[in-house]
Design brief:
Blueprint lengths: L3 H5 L16 E4 L3 H8 L3 E9 L2 E8 L2 E6 L5 H13 L4 E10 L9 E10 L13 E2 L2 H14 L4 E8 L2 H5 L7 H14 L3 E3 L2 H11 L2 E10 L14 H20 L7
Helix pairs in contact: 3-7, 4-8
């Protein structure tokens, strides 16, 4: 049932935020616990709302309101966050998250900037046919790359993969369709797909459908194909720093953009 109190207050049903409480620029971590970590990189950050998996903070970068909203695990809840944030004025989204490496030479603690994503999740199919590509906004990609270079943080960029079934990647041999899954991972490796997560493809597709901007920067937290199983998460400090610097650059470019022009 719809929470009538939230609706009466002009708040979005899931994220419990209202117009004027979030910035144009929003970071989208999956983990609610990571939202507070990212908020610590902003000036004057304050909690806005907490409902279900959605924890939201708003602060500033160079005096401009910027928000953080956790999305939880997977594409369905990430789609809800983007939909509701866009409904109250946000138009630029950067996912900051963790991923599993697919290339054997991609070390744990590596940083990946996604230019596009394999649509192995189901949520985006409710928006656009599978033939539609899941690609990041070029302006956001360039801002992330420039930010990493300016901060001296090493990175890889390219195609990633997003899926719905965590253990189909981590333990494919345990699945009834093990052979099919393992063949798929081998194909992705041969094609140069860098890493996998569970949200990015849907965010890219939905952003295009909603005519907003989306990008993604990921930390490689494990790589079973290189023998690095799940363990303690490496520090997100550099990854978050790159996201924050990218938004700082987008703020400057947007302020200087000619009205009515794209790009």
């Amino acid at each position: 049932m719809i929470d009538k109190d939230l609706v009466a207050q002009g708040r979005q049903y899931h994220i419990a935020c209202a117009m004027g409480e979030v910035g144009r620029y929003v970071f989208l971590p999956g983990d609610p616990g990571r939202a507070s970590l990212i908020a610590g990189f902003l000036d004057d950050a304050r909690p806005i709302a907490q409902n279900r998996e959605f924890v939201t903070y708003t602060g500033t970068i160079d005096g401009i309101p910027v928000s953080v909203c956790s999305t939880g695990i997977g594409s369905p809840s990430a789609a809800i966050a983007l939909e509701e944030l866009a409904a109250i004025g946000a138009d630029t989204f950067i996912r900051i998250g963790r991923s599993g490496g697919l290339q054997p030479n991609l070390r744990v603690a590596s940083m990946v900037i996604a230019t596009g994503a394999v649509r192995d999740e189901g949520t985006s199919r409710a928006y656009l046919p599978i033939e539609f590509p899941a690609v990041a906004d070029l302006r956001v990609v360039n801002a992330l790359i420039d930010a990493a270079a300016a901060l001296g943080v090493s990175y890889r960029y390219g195609i990633i993969e997003s899926n719905d079934a965590f253990f189909a990647e981590v333990r494919p041999e345990s699945m009834p369709i093990a052979e099919e899954l393992q063949a798929r991972w081998r194909a992705y490796q041969r094609a140069g797909v860098l890493c996998s997560d569970m949200e990015t493809a849907a965010l890219f597709v939905i952003a295009h459908a909603k005519k907003v901007r989306a990008g993604c920067v990921l930390l490689v937290s494990d790589n079973q194909f290189a023998g690095h199983r799940l363990g303690p998460e490496p520090s997100m400090h550099d990854t978050i720093g790159v996201g924050v610097e990218a938004v700082r650059r987008l703020i400057r470019k947007d302020a200087n953009a000619t009205p009515g022009r794209n790009g």
